[in-house]
Design a protein that fits this description.
Shape: globular
Order of helices and strands: HHEEEEEEHHHHHHHHHHHHEEEEHEEHE
Number of helices: 16
Structural class: alpha+beta
Radius of gyration: 23 Å
Distance between the termini: 40 Å
Oligomer: single chain
Helix content: 40-55%
Strand content: 5-15%
Low-confidence stretches: 1-42, 133-153, 161-190
Largest sheet: 6 strands, antiparallel
Mean pLDDT: 80
Length: about 425
């Protein structure tokens, strides 16, 4: 009788995530370039960029409404549907099917804010507010991305990177800036009243108070200040587009971002990360990443909390701190939420790492990769990923929020992956 192969230990799995002396997994292209060579890419042919009819992706109320329309053809770029929204308050893009209702709600909010700004009552409040100049410290909490320039590239970058962003972790070690906890005491006393009014306004409008939408962020600033400093008592509540208020997959996060002062939320996140054993330098780099809005930071910390007892969570925090765009930041957060749901749904994850992308491992040798993507075609980055030797396991499972193209489905199955679409 043949002996059953030994199960990999957690420590052996952890070593599989690492490269001696570098602390990161080898780039997939380097590994596979040496392993498979050029001939590996001859068949099947890689697929051209897809373009999909918007009407097949979303209900009509998200594609047309008072003062806005969505382009009928939707290209797929870096695995996300790219919707273009043309509105009487501006031109906007929604990167991802899950982001479309959020952007539509933001358009409705902007329309309401613009309408309110034109009233005589608002003009009177503006005059009164002028006597109470806004404090510059407000920007620390409500303008997270104004001065940041992201690196080029999209979500593809998250599937095979070596060292990118590690210098941010290293520089955080010697950065003399104070931690979030130390900053909070100085900031809260100045901005608490205004910040509370701004969160209240965002809640009425059904939008994220820390939205990455620069147009909406500026309008929230202006109207919230007039309401706070000018004593404007107008209620601006509007109806919500289904799904639009969902900042996170959990109700606790959605409640917290509206009802908890920003400073308290910063402190709460930092303390939770410290309790998970995340190194101080990593916490500091995570806190400093301005593409991760406070809402996204809170959602990620909560998702990691749901992975209680899972080793390696600090690697996910470090990975998140390297996000260089809103798309990348959302990808890390929502993918972690997928993994937490899988973990709590009956198949416990024992170890998590983030060699690019996020990878979970079970105690019995299974590999689980969560991917919050809309549409995965068979393109070179996916061909590299599907055959990566550092992601061996039995079974190998991908949790995909969206779906695969027929060719990609066939090729992933041939490479030994089980893909759970629509997870």
């Amino acid at each position: 009788m043949r002996d059953e192969p030994a199960r990999p230990t957690i420590e052996a799995a952890r070593r599989a995530f690492r490269v001696p002396g570098r602390g990161a997994v080898l780039a997939a292209g380097v590994v596979l370039g040496a392993t498979f060579g050029t001939a590996a890419w001859a068949q099947p042919a890689f697929e051209p960029p897809a373009v999909v009819a918007a009407a097949t992706l979303a209900p009509s109320n998200l594609l047309m409404g008072p003062g806005f329309t969505v382009d009928s053809q939707v290209p797929v770029e870096t695995f996300l549907y790219r919707f273009t929204i043309r509105a009487n308050v501006g031109l906007f893009e929604a990167h991802g099917l899950a982001v479309l209702p959020i952007r539509v709600q933001e358009v409705k909010a902007l329309q309401k804010l613009q309408e309110t700004s034109g009233t005589a009552e608002f003009a009177q409040a503006v005059e009164q507010a002028g006597a109470r100049p806004i404090m510059s410290a407000v920007n620390m909490l409500t303008h997270p991305v104004d001065t940041i320039t992201g690196l080029p590239g999209g979500i593809e970058r998250m599937f095979g990177r070596v060292g990118l962003g590690l210098e941010r972790i290293d520089s955080a070690v010697s950065n003399p800036d104070q931690s979030a906890i130390e900053q909070t005491g100085k900031t809260l006393a100045v901005v608490l009243g205004y910040e509370s009014e701004r969160r209240k306004l965002a809640k009425e409008l059904g939008v994220d108070p820390y939205t990455a939408n620069a147009v909406l962020r500026k309008k929230l600033d202006d109207v919230a200040w007039v309401r706070f400093a000018g004593r404007l008592g107008v209620n601006l509540a509007i109806s919500a587009v289904p799904g639009s208020i969902i900042i996170s997959s959990t109700s606790w996060v959605n409640t917290a971002v509206y009802d908890t002062p920003a400073g308290d939320l910063m402190v709460m996140n930092e303390k939770k990360l410290q309790a998970m054993g995340v190194p101080d330098a990593t916490v500091k780099a995570f806190t400093a990443n301005q593409w991760l809005t406070l809402s996204l930071k809170t959602a990620l910390v909560e998702a990691l909390d749901r992975l209680a007892g899972v080793s390696g969570r600090e690697d996910v925090v470090a990975f998140a701190s390297r996000a260089a765009s809103d798309d990348e930041a959302r990808f890390v957060v929502t993918s972690t939420e997928l993994l937490a749901r899988y973990h709590q749904g009956g198949t416990p994850i024992a170890l998590v790492g983030a060699p690019g992308p996020i990878v979970g491992r079970t105690s019995t040798g299974g590999v689980v990769v969560p991917a919050s993507l809309d549409y995965v075609a068979w393109i070179r980055p996916m061909a590299i990923f599907a055959k990566r030797p550092d992601l061996q396991g039995n079974p190998r499972i991908a949790l995909l929020a969206g779906k695969l193209s027929p060719v990609a489905k066939q090729q992933f199955a041939a490479a030994g992956w089980t893909v759970q679409e629509g997870f």
